[in-house]
Design brief:
IS110 family transposase; alpha/beta; 2 domains; 6 strands; 8 helices; Nucleotidyltransferase, domain 5; Transp_IS110-like_N; DNA binding; 6-stranded mixed sheet
């Protein structure tokens, strides 16, 4: 029976810590390398089961390691913590990751393709813009309320009433406040366009994906939910 090898890689921005063992626990690698030398180091190692913690860049590095012939598995930090028996530092973290990736009770996160990552990134950015838009609308309402100008509830009311308020010279709104509200309203329109652009992106992805098309057959699901599902669930 051929020997199996396991490796834990503690990911970072510039320096990476590696700890690798064979299936008898013999250490075959225990060192830190620079970002520039990471792939070259792993390319010279036998095929290994590599464990990494879920973090920024984990899916990218998993894909790169897999290109070298390794089997890379991404783990949540909660599965690594119990195997950290020494003080927390990068090399000790690599040892803990190496131990955790060998355990049958560990659960792994499927490695995502760049395309699926891009879809999820678009969802996160859209969510940020929606939250920013809500906060901006509340800010506009509060600014105008300070001068006795009340806008009815609802986003549509903001878009309907604010242009009229800005044009009305007799409403007692000081010029400085008028300029601030105008700037806020301009930014609101920019956010509306950015959110609309992401929704157009979701429409395009849905039309190009047979899986997303099938999900659309479920009542109440649109392109936004369909793209989130296909990007989150499954492999590749």
């Amino acid at each position: 029976m051929s020997t199996q090898f396991f490796c834990g890689v503690d990911l970072a921005k510039h320096h990476f810590s590696l700890h690798a063992v064979d299936d008898h626990g013999k250490v075959i690698l225990h060192k830190s390398v620079s970002r520039a030398k990471l792939l070259a180091t792993l390319a010279n190692m036998p095929t290994m089961c590599i464990g990494i913690e879920a973090c920024s860049g984990a899916h990218y590095w998993a894909r790169e390691f897999n290109k070298l012939g390794h089997d890379t598995r991404i783990m949540a930090a909660k599965y690594v913590g119990p195997y950290r028996t020494k003080g927390k530092n990068d090399l000790n973290d690599a040892v803990a990751i190496c131990d955790a990736v060998q355990r049958p009770n560990s659960r792994f996160i499927p490695v995502k393709s760049p395309e699926r990552q891009a879809i999820l990134a678009t969802h996160r950015v859209r969510e940020h813009w929606v939250n920013e838009r809500t906060a901006l609308i509340n800010r506009i309402r509060a600014l105008l309320a300070e001068f006795g100008i009340i806008i009815p509830t609802g986003r549509a009311a903001i878009h309907r009433e604010v242009p009229l308020i800005l044009e009305a010279v007799e409403n007692g709104l000081p010029d400085i406040a008028r300029a601030v509200v105008a700037d806020c309203f301009d930014h609101l329109q920019t956010l509306n366009q950015r959110i609309a652009d992401t929704e157009q992106c979701f429409d395009m992805v849905t039309k190009a994906s047979p899986n997303a098309q099938r999900i659309l057959n479920v009542r109440g699901i649109g392109p936004q939910t369909a793209t989130a599902i296909i990007a989150t669930i499954g492999k590749g």
